[in-house]
Every structure is written in C-alpha cells, then in structure tokens.
Amino acid sequence: MHGHHRNHPAAAADDDGNDGMIDRVDPFIGTEVTSLPKQTGLAATWWWAKPQVGNTHPGATYPLGMVSACAYSGAYPTGYGRYDLNTEGVPRTIHDEPVASGFTHFQQSGTGAIRKYYNYFRVTPMLEPLDVLGRTWGIEDEEATPGYYAATLDSGVRSEITVGPKSAVHRYTFPRHENARIVIDFSLGGLSIPYGSTIPLRAHLEQVAPGIAQGEIVVEGTPLSVYIECDEHHWRQMLWYDRRLMPGGTRLDFDHIRPTTLRPFGLMWAGPSEPGHTIEIRIGFSLRGVEQARENLRRDCGSGANRFGYRRERTQKAWRKQLRSIAVDTPSADRETIFGTALYHSLIKPCLAPQESPFWPTDGPFVFDLSTMWDIYRTQLPLITTLMPEKAVELGNALLTICEEEGNFPIGYRMARGSDRFSRQGSALAQTFLADLCQLGLPGIDWDWALVHMHNDLRRTYGEDFLLRGHAHPISHTLDLAFGYWCTAKVALRMGDRALVKEFEPLAAQWVNAFDAASGLLRDSTFYEGSKYNYSFRLLHDMEGRIDLAGGDDAFVGLLDDFFGYGADPVTQPGVDPSPAELAAGYSLGRFEGLNNEPDMEAPWSYHYAGRPDRTAEVVHAIVQQQFGTGRGGLPGNDDSGGLSSWYVWASLGMFPVAGQNRFLVNAPSFAESEIRVGGEETFFVRTRGFREPEHDGPAQYVQSATLNGAPLDRTWLRGDELHRGGELVLELGDEPSAWGTDRRPPSTPVR
C-alpha cells in the first residue's frame, strides 16, 4: 500500500496544503525481484549482468537523514524482505512470505554487497515469552509513505514507525493479553545469512528512571549511543541477558565481546494489555555519547508523551518540501508513481549527520552511507546539488574533512570504521563532485583547502601507477584519474594557480593511454562489474579527441550502435544462479546493461558528441519506458543509494548532467511539462510543443528546435549556471529526427 493517486497532472505545491508529489510515492518499488513488461526493440537486446532486484526497503526515512527504521527479516541486503545473498541474476528466497522478527534501525538503500549491514537495536513487540525472541512472525497490512512504515504481525500487534533526522519513534497497538512485551535487543546487528551478522565489541546499557534507559554499543569500530523513552510507566521495566530476566538489575556492562561469547542482551517492558492498548517508544541516536543522543531526541521530538504524531507530521513536511522540488505533467498515475518514487529514492542517502563524527574531535559536517561514490557521482550527487545546494556543500565539506583526517577521499564510506573497501570501483570521484560545486560558484567551501586535498588524493592507490606509467589497471582508472586531474585543474584555475593548471594538463591528456586505437575501445584489462564495452563510452572531457581516436563520427556511432543492439537479436537474461559460462557468454556480447547496473549509465549521451542526438533519444526512450515500472518489482537492478533512480529523474526531464563539467545535455523529455525548483528558490521550466504521451513499446520523439528564455537554442546542452538560475527551456518535438544538434557539438577540452 502507498499514498493515494490523483488522476490529474502533478503540479508544484505551495504552502496551500497541496501535497504535490508525496502522495505519488510507493516505497515498496524495488523491494522484490524485477518484474517488468516484456522488453521489445532495443531494450530486448540489452544484457543484465547484475542482480535483478532493486534491494530497496519500504522503511521510514528522513531526507538525507541519519536514521531509517523497518521490519527486520534478516534477509539480504537491507534486512527487509525475502532474499538470500546475490551478486548476479535472480536471487533465491529464504522466506516464502513476508516475515519479521522485529523492527531495526539503519538500513542501506538499494545497495548490494556492502558487508556493513547495520540493523541495530531491534525492537520486538511480543505476546510470547522472552525465550522465543528471534522467531519471525508473518507480516501483513503493510503501509509505507515517506517517513512512515506500518505492518501488522500475525500475533495481532500493529506496529508503526516514523523517524526524525537523528531519532526513531515506534508505536505498537496490542490486543488483549495478560503479559505483553516490548523487547529491545542491543546485541543484534547485520543479517541472518551466513557471515552476515555484526557483533558488538563493547556495550553498556542502564535504566535511568521508569520509562527511561540509555546505552551504547561499539560495533565495527563505531560507538553508537541511544537514549530511550517508553510511555508505559505502569509496565515492568527490566534488563535481560541470554533471554533471562534480571529483576532488580539496573546496568549491564560488556568490556569485550567475542563472537564465540556473545549472548543476546537488552531491555524489556512487560505488562497487561487491553484491545487497542498503544505504547510509544522513542529513541534518540548519536555517535558521540548518550548525552548527545538525549539532546538529539529532544531536538527531534520535543518533550512529553505521545510524540509519534508530531514527529510523523514534521518528517512528512520535510519530505513534502523535497518532493515538491520537481513537478511533472502527465495524465498517467503510473508514470507519476514511478517518477515520484524515483525522486524519493534519490533523496534518502547519503546520511548527513552534522556534529556526529565519532572518529575526530572537531564539530562540523559528517557523512556516512556514501555507498558508493561509483554509483552516485554521475547522477544522484548532481541532483542533490541542483535541488539542495546547501546540502551538497555540507557533503563537500564532510568529504574534505574525511580526507584531511583519514588521508584520502572515500569511494565508499559507511558508519563502520575503516570501511572504504571499494577503491577498485573507481578513482578520483570526489574530485568530480567538488569540481561541479566550484564551477557553480557555490559558497561555503574553502577552495584553497580543497585544492590541497584534491591534488594529494590523486596520488593514492592507482594514482601512483598513473604517474609512473601513464596508465593504471583496471584501465578504467586511467580515465578516472585523467578526468580527476582535469577537474582539479578547474579548481586550480579558479584559485589562480596557473602553474598547477599547467602541471595537470598533460596528466589530463593521458586518458588516451587507456584506449586501443585499432579497435576504438578500451585496452584489455579487468573491469569492475562490466566489460571493456561498458566502460568505453564514458563522457570524457575530450570527447572530440575520443571520437577521432575511434576513426571519426561514423566509426564512433557504429561502435555505439553495436553496443546498444541496433539490428541485434533479443537476448536471454540470467536466471537463478547463472553459471560462469552463462555469464561469460553474456559479457562477450559487449552489450549495454540496460540500467541494471551503473558502469555505462552515461553512455546513451555519447551520441550527442557525434552529432546524433536522435540516437540518444531512441535509447533513452527505451530505457525510461521499459526498464522502470510500478509494483515491488519495478526496478531493473540494485538502486544503489539512488544511483538508478536519479538517472530516471534526469532522463525523464530531458536532461543529463555531465558530472564534473558543469554541463547538462538536452534530450526529448518524457513529460509534456516539468518544473524544477533549483535550490528551493528559482524555478526552471521544461516545456514542449508537439508532445505525444509515450508508450511502453512506442516510438521515440525527437527535438526539432529549442529556445532558452525565448532565444533560439541551437546547441544540445545547457551550462550549469543556465539551469541553476532558473528559466524556461522550450522543446519542439516531432516524430522524425531533425538537424537540431547535428552540427554544434557539446564542448570538448582538447588537452595535448
């Protein structure tokens, strides 16, 4: 279940009570195996290399907030749902039906094998003895809207959860029972799959007063503190250890816990309940001790009892504000739902937790669940920068502090200490994000400070090989590093350091060393979750040189046409447990992954640089209309912290950010009109003439001509400032390709 649909076009809401996009959101999209209408045409030729499941969860979240909360089954990878560990094809189920053993906090959103699975402080409402803690109950009557999750256990307990930026509020409604319970398990973490558990190293918890407790667990190097309030003061409040009550005990301390010595422990309230008896549990969280956890709870929820409605309303208001930032015009309730949910999924992560770093003493911005930059730097971070520039600056400063304190920019950064395990995914991705912030001229970052760290970071890991040999393997890192030097040169130029610019220019030119001139593709190497084909069509800073290397426009377009399956036969997708031979055969096709994964997500726009925006229109149309849908199976692959969802948002609007280059490529949109509230202040309108409502397997439309703020636009891109200051883009559409965009190519920066 989710919010009710309206059957009229969505419109941007002001403070007049109009909810805008929020009631179109369905948080259940992506929680189960991909289930889309049969692909046709180009889309039928794309081969899906990675898991066919969105890996999202429907739990309560706050925009870029620290806390999420959801029903816990122990399944991979979020703790919600029915699936086992999976890295290719269709996942196996470990539960036949939806089940839960309680409700946990801190979940990934859409990611795959992160290994840091969280799910701390499980809260379980029970009618059974404590001995059965850990069993699962069937769940039904699930309901989810932004900031709210509810489900009924088959024991008859109705469970509702909402969250704030640094808190969670649970509300449980019990049937009649002589000894009902609410149990909080401090020892649980991770998943109930092999090697999926997370064991606290140290812990303490104490009863402070009737209805009040506090404590801390140190888990994977991170001290996570809680301050807990329970409104039911007439129930007994007790600590427990190894599923045995500790009457009279007021404190538990564990100085050193090993996996072999761990026994469950926690806190419980118990007493008689009558039908409709409701109990509220409020939890404040902090990475800096119980006092700050208490302050966070007060700040989020205020004081006193019955704060659930207050917190839910405030969180809903925060989501309503963010989801108002884009409005689209379509008569299709389904397309509103897909778009609204994509926008919602794009704004859950990363977790911004100011003043909460547990690893260094200074106050200021802190971020976790940047999981991972490889997934989000091209689409989601530019979306945050466009809609919430102040949050983008906060994130930029958090990344700079991480680099200063820990010695490098993270590729993936989670709450767990020492958790940057994804350096082989990519290099120099933070430089791309920071270059966009710098070129936009957003205030709030010390660019002298930033330039030092951007420069130093380029020498880490694969950067050493790049400097010594002119390339690095995996060869895709050569492209990352060359572009990282180009991006850092943009910051150096802004700071007037022309000597550094001169030093970086030949390094930026080393992108050419990654390619085989004979094939026009990348050199043979190892590739992360793809093949040389998936990485060969990146949007480089010197696309003119890239196309020349391939033999010119026609040769480059020919390579792209083969990659996107023009004239190819339909393929068969991997099923459950695909064999190595099946996967090797699929990769050997050299085919686009169809937004099932991220390595080639910008490739459709490469056609723009060869004067063929009509091809971009055809490929993007097929993706938008065939690879995303409604229902729990509505995503083509792991959403990866909003990486796929934000791609859909941009593509639907008829734009695509060229990350790091402060540029947006223009394409035929899939909505007749849209409004983007840039930074919450200015509005950028995308309007069309001759628009035809798109169909699943119908033909694409093509841009015939364009105007920007009333003046003819004969180019296929916008500068970042043109979007960010607001305005109006009008696109004349037609059913046949036109000459628009065939002569004037997007800018390249030849660096020799």
TrEMBL record:
Biological processes annotated in GO: carbohydrate metabolic process; glycoprotein catabolic process
Pfam families tied to this protein: Glyco_hydro_92, Glyco_hydro_92N
Listed GO MF terms: carbohydrate binding; peptide-N4-(N-acetyl-beta-glucosaminyl)asparagine amidase activity
Glycosyl hydrolase family 92 N-terminal domain mapped to chain residues: 25-187
UniProt domain Glycosyl hydrolase family: residue ranges: 292-735
Superkingdom, natural source: Bacteria
A GO cellular-component term linked to this record: cytosol
InterPro entries from the UniProt entry: 6-hairpin_glycosidase_sf, GH-type_carb-bd, GH92_N, Glyco_hydro_92, PNGase
Ranges where the record places region Disordered: 1-20
PANTHER family given in the database record: PEPTIDE N-GLYCANASE PNGASE -RELATED, PUTATIVE-RELATED
Protein name: Glycoside hydrolase
Organism from which the protein derives: Agromyces rhizosphaerae
